[in-house]
Amino acid sequence: MAKKGEKKHMKRIAKPKAIPIIDKKASKFITRTACGPHQMKGAVPLSVLLRDMLHVAKNAKEARSILVGRMVEVDGTIRTAGDFPIGIMDAVGLPKAGKYYRIMVDWKGRLKAVETTKEDAGRKIMHVVRKQVVPGAKISLTFHDGRNMLGDNHVHCGDSVVVSLPKPKVLEHLKLQPGARCLVREGKHAGSIVTLNELMERKSRRPSEAKVTGADKAEFITVAKYLFVVDSKFGVSQ
User: Fold this and answer.
1) For residue range 55-65, what is the model confidence (pLDDT) as tens digits?
2) Domain 10-118 architecture
3) Which region holds residue 98: left if phi is over 0, alpha if psi is between -120 and 50, else beta?
4) What does each C-alpha distance from 15 to 9, 12, 57, 113 come to in angstroms?
């Protein structure tokens, strides 16, 4: 038979590494992340977040009831789909409960929800992954969560910007340069907050690397694309 559209299911044992579920064999299937702002390999479905990470629902049926009741906000916008992808730096809010969370990564590169304040949930740090010229000679910036915004030529790929939520408005520009404070998203040092010392271009097809200093004052080298520039407030209010 011919293939009829995208897959609608996923086996629990084959889940992406980003989903922090310890017991993979508790059941056979798990909610499959839909197409959206984050890639499947770096996202967790909203219903799984509510049930297995925030523990506000005992099962998928309760999670569905919470979502249908319009009780969950993602980046200031109400979301009702259980398969909506949640990724790094997203702000998840439960306004009726007065709870707000920031999505980060742990030392294994898995997503984790860290409780934060309502004020902090009203802003978001976004990583620039693409820059292009659009009609009208304007600069368009594409961010890690799929958003597109008009910017200026001073913002480069690898930089970050702080925006307000739910209506995105640039509040601050964070450059990827020596002295920048960065979050390591992947690799051996995932979840670490480091200070960038030097960017090192490599020959051939080897990815660019960066020399950084960790919290323990130890220097190490990591892949440059693993770095996510953050501001001085990141990780302080959480």
Assistant:
1) 999 999 999 99
2) Roll (3.10)
3) left
4) 11, 5, 20, 18
